[in-house]
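hey can u check if this looks right to u? its 86 residues, i copy pasted from the old doc so theres a chance i mangled smth
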Amino acid sequence: QPMTAAAENHENGLTLAPNPATTHMGVRARGFMRGSLVVMDADGRVVLRQSVSGDQAELDLQGLGNGLYLVRLEGTAVMARFIVSR
């Protein structure tokens, strides 16, 4: 899925698209990401962890229910909120 300006959410160095998301979401960073992207639910529980190396990644959100989530580059303050809505 191409990232369009209308769907982008720039927050603290990450661009998420689409947001709200349904099944997949692209994550782009201003710089190089290395390590893990961690997705947490509204209660702070880790619901998804994915290795990343580069300036972009795609998250498979099919196992997540509707709601508000936070994606963070593990070990950093780089994070952004997103919504899953089907």
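Confidence is low (pLDDT under 50) at residues 1-11.
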